[in-house]
Amino acid sequence: MRRQWMAEALGTFFLVFAGCGAVAVNEVRSGAVTPVGISLVFGLIVLAMIYTFGEVSGAHLNPAVTIGFWSVGRFPGHSVLGYIGAQVVGALTASGLLKLLFPDSVTLGATHASGTLWQSCLLEGVLTFLLMYVVLSVSRGAKEKGITAGIVVGAVIALEALFAGPICGASMNPARSLAPAVMSGSVGDLWIYFVGPIAGALVGGVAFGFVEADEKSSLTHEAGSLENAQS
Length: 231
Description:
Helix content is 75%, strand content 2%. The chain contains eight helices and two strands, in the order H-H-H-H-H-E-E-H-H-H. A two-stranded antiparallel sheet has the order 1-2. A hairpin with a 2-residue loop joins strand 1 (139-140) and strand 2. Helix 2 (34-57) packs across helix 6, helix 5 (117-137) runs antiparallel to helix 6 and helix 5 (117-137) packs parallel to helix 8.
């Protein structure tokens, strides 16, 4: 599993370094990157990491996604902790480097609720629900498939960050929120970014399983009806 762990650590490192780095630059350079730019950076770096590490580890880059894959039987339970550990190490390393590069940044890209806590928690859950459902739809097993997988997943992340970022940060990723919060010492509402994304990924997995099972049942029924008609 060492290749997969290294891929997850590196992929999450670059996700946090680029995405949270964009937030830090925007902070210290008075809005130079802009919220739209930040959203695009997150989407593009995820796209790039899927194409770079998708064939090695699946490019989960997110504990919630790993747990979501496991919940639908697409990822072995004995590998979950290893993946999450690698993701957290990668994220913490990136945030440590950002702290060194941008000492004037107060948050280092940490996510915080701008409204009520329940609002941000629920929003994170819904956002991750959509992300997990899309990831499951464009993946085979626990790995993305086809040349469009990275484009689709990256586009969803950018889209969600564009409209929900100003409210909850649109993290959808416990490791991405944990690392800058720890490095900046701002962990007050961190629980939101554990509860919301993990719950959203689990519910997204349940919904996907239900729809997929219903679709397979319909196809089987149609095939049986066609066979009976032909006979």
